[in-house]
Structure formats: structure tokens, C-alpha cells
Write a structure and sequence with these properties.
The complex is a heterodimer of chains A (111) and B (240). With 111 residues, chain A is an all-alpha fold. In chain A, 65% of the residues lie in helices and 0% in strands. Chain A is flat. Chain A starts with 22 loop residues before the first helix and ends in a 5-residue tail after the last helix. Chain B has a single domain, classed as Up-down Bundle (Four Helix Bundle (Hemerythrin (Met), subunit A)), CATH 1.20.120. Chain B is built from eight helices and no strands. With 240 residues, chain B is mainly α. The chains are: A mainly alpha (111), B mainly alpha (240). Chains A and B meet through helix 1, helix 2 and helix 3 of A and helix 1, helix 3 and helix 8 of B.
């Protein structure tokens, strides 16, 4: 029993000590999110041609990343959690890429 | 001497007997919550993918239909949702530093802004109902076939292309609707968490329920951060 009861957490140092994120960080993230919401609206009214959706998605992705890192504490989590989050998005991108290649190749040249 | 009498058993919700340490229990809960959120990525991912395909196939119909949505309402709702998420983040902090009064206030503010979001969303849905922009038997393509007669500065669509605006509105109602259902479920859980927080359950070192609910709430926010530009801002400079 004793070798499994590892109260001082020696055998598994990957379990990181809990990190309390201060409100100051949340306020910075909050203001950044509001600014980028304004930016995405402004960018939509400017004719950037093919880059309109690219800019819109880039801004949305940036906002999502800072929500994940700070509001959702991923930055302060163990590698297990970081890997889990990364694996989820990686799987989604793999499925999207495979499905898109199917759609594109069925109507080859018609896109 | 009986083993059970050797030491005092103290029950801590943040350290159940089958976990070696509090940290291990906490990380297990976080890990489990993230696994659930991964299934949510896949769930919403399918809808985002259909959006991607149909937007490419019927781009003109999508652009014109998208311009029927209100950017002021959608933009306001984005800010409202970000504010709600901000207060949820502060609620996690209040729970961690064991400030019961602040925790309850932040949870209530999270609920208030979440409810405002649902309210603005219902105003938008009602407008779609009045304009016959809900896909189905009563869908009206007249504005898209003959936009100038309705004072809309858009290139007219062919009758066939105009029916494809229904695909946009179907995806709009599907994606924003499932997002709204997630929020309504979240608001229900928030009521329960607020009652328990008021009782003092989450300001004695037991943060996991608040923290994991925050993960859910922020995730639903992130979905909206993508829905807003993809649904409202496809092409906001018509007639270029």
C-alpha cells in the first residue's frame, strides 16, 4: 500500500502544483478579446478580396487560443492536459483535411 | 486494534479516498472534462465542415443571406458573451482564493450576461420569423431574387440560387440553435452551482466543479467566437 500512497507526489512530478491565475491576467485577456471583436467587424467592411475570410478566421483563432490558454488555464496545466487539448484539435484538422480532399477530388477542376 | 480505529477519517470532497493526492484528483477531473470537450469539438466540427462545403458551393447565396443578419446585434452579443466568460473566469479565481461573497456575485453576473445573450438571440430569431427567413414552406426568396425592389443593395440571385439561401439559414439556425441550447443547459447548471456556492461548498478548497463548469462555459464562448465572423461577416461590402 505504502508505495502507492504518494502524498508528497514524488513518483509522478508531472502533476503540477495548482496555479491561481490573478484577476489582472483575466482583465488583460478580456480587453484583448473586446478589441479583436471590434477589429474583426472593421476588417469585414474592408474589401480584402480572398483575404477577408482568412483575416476573419485568423482573428477568431487568435481569440480562441487566448481563451484556451488563460481563461481555460491550459497554459498552466500539466503536459497530459496540453497534449489532450492538442490531440482534439489535431484530430479535427485531420478529419477536415481528409473530407476536403474527398470533396475536392470528386469534382476535380470544378472548384 | 482494529484498522478502522487507527486514524480519524476526514471527508474532503477535493480528496476522495481513491485518489493519492488532491492534485491527482483535480487533474483527473480536468482531464475528464477535456475529453468531454473533445467530443464537443467533433460535434460542432461536423457542422462547421458542412458550412465550409456549402459556403464554397453556394457562395453568392451565402453572402447575400449573411447580409440579412444584424452586425450590431451579433457584435453586441459577442461582447456580451465575452463579458459573461470574463466573470466566469473571475468566479474561478474567487473560488480559489475562498471569497464566498465574490464567488456568488461573479456566478450571478455570468448568468445575467448569459441570459442577455439568449435574449438578444431571440430578438434576432423573431426578426427572421417576421421576414420569412426560416427555411421551409413559408420561406420567402423574393428579397434575394429582386433585392432592389426591397431597397437592398445586393446583386440579384437567380430563382434557383435564391432557394440556396435556405441552406445558409438552415445552418444558421442549426449552429446558433445548438450553441444556444448549450448556453441554456449551462445557465441551468449555473443556478445549481450558485446555490451550492452560496452554501459555501466551493470556498473550502473544493474548486473542481466551478473550474470544470468554467471550461464548459468558455468552450461554448469559443464556438461563438467562430460563429460570429462565419455567419455574420461573410461579405459586408456588397456591390464592389
Amino acid at each position: 500500500m505504502t508505495e502507492f500512497h504518494d502524498a508528497s507526489n514524488v513518483t509522478n512530478p508531472e502533476h503540477t502544483a495548482h496555479h491561481v491565475v490573478p484577476p489582472r491576467t483575466y482583465i488583460f485577456v478580456f480587453i484583448t478579446l473586446l478589441i479583436f471583436t471590434g477589429l474583426t467587424v472593421v476588417a469585414a467592411y474592408i474589401d480584402l478580396g480572398i483575404f477577408n475570410p482568412v483575416v476573419a478566421l485568423a482573428i477568431a483563432s487568435f481569440k480562441a487560443v487566448i481563451v484556451f490558454l488563460f481563461f481555460m488555464h491550459v497554459k498552466y496545466q500539466s503536459r497530459l492536459i496540453k497534449l489532450t487539448v492538442g490531440a482534439g484539435f489535431f484530430s479535427f484538422f485531420v478529419l477536415t483535411a481528409m473530407s476536403l480532399s474527398d470533396y475536392i477530388s470528386r469534382a476535380w477542376g470544378l472548384w | 486494534m482494529d484498522h478502522a480505529e487507527e486514524h480519524e477519517h476526514v471527508f474532503l470532497p477535493q480528496h476522495l479516498h481513491h485518489f493519492a493526492t488532491e492534485e491527482q484528483q483535480r487533474e483527473s477531473a480536468t482531464f475528464g472534462m477535456w475529453l468531454f470537450l473533445l467530443t464537443e469539438i467533433m460535434f460542432f466540427g461536423g457542422m462547421f465542415f458542412s458550412y465550409l462545403i456549402y459556403r464554397n458551393w453556394y457562395y453568392d447565396a451565402f453572402a447575400v443571406a449573411s447580409n440579412q443578419l444584424s452586425v450590431p446585434l451579433g457584435g453586441t452579443n459577442t461582447a456580451v458573451l465575452i463579458t459573461s466568460g470574463f466573470f466566469m473566469a473571475l468566479a474561478v479565481w474567487a473560488s480559489e482564493v475562498r471569497k464566498k461573497g465574490l464567488l456568488v456575485i461573479f456566478l450571478l453576473l455570468t448568468m445575467v450576461f448569459g441570459t442577455v445573450f439568449i435574449g438578444i438571440k431571440s430578438v434576432e430569431y423573431h426578426e427572421k420569423w417576421e421576414k420569412h427567413h426560416i427555411p421551409g414552406a413559408h420561406f420567402d426568396t423574393a428579397e434575394f431574387v429582386n433585392p432592389h425592389a426591397y431597397g437592398i443593395n445586393e446583386a440579384p440571385l437567380s430563382p434557383d440560387a435564391a432557394t440556396k439561401t435556405q441552406i445558409f439559414f438552415s445552418l444558421y439556425f442549426l449552429m446558433t440553435g445548438i450553441h444556444a441550447i448549450h448556453m441554456i443547459i449551462g445557465l441551468g447548471i449555473l443556478v445549481w452551482l450558485t446555490i451550492r456556492a452560496h452554501r459555501g461548498d466551493f470556498t473550502m478548497g473544493y474548486v473542481a466543479p466551478i473550474e470544470n463548469f468554467a471550461l464548459y462555459w468558455h468552450f461554448v464562448d469559443v464556438i461563438w467566437l467562430f460563429l460570429f465572423p462565419l455567419l455574420y461577416l461573410i461579405n459586408r461590402h456588397p456591390g464592389r
